[in-house]
Amino acid sequence: MSKTQKKGLIFGIIWGFLSWIPYFTDILANYRNIVGIPATLGINLELALNHGNSVIFSVIIGACLCFLIASFYEYIKENIKIIGLPKLHYPRKVRFFKFRRGF
Question: How far from chain centre, in Å, is Cα 28?
């Protein structure tokens, strides 16, 4: 598991919990369609199975979605080359400025 996939998994777990905010409060109600994707899928899965907890389903679904997106991003970044574009990994140049006294 790479670092990008771990970040995707952590972000997905957080997203799974935060997706319930628009359903219980009016905070982020305008963004319910985007933010609440894991919660909506978790509710539908609980209703379809007649078993389980929709919050846990939403956390698992959010983690899976973000893990897959992070894996897909990493695959595109590593394996797809576009001709004509420069390298994206530029070396960092750190410059130290020395201030002269007596100016």
Answer: 18
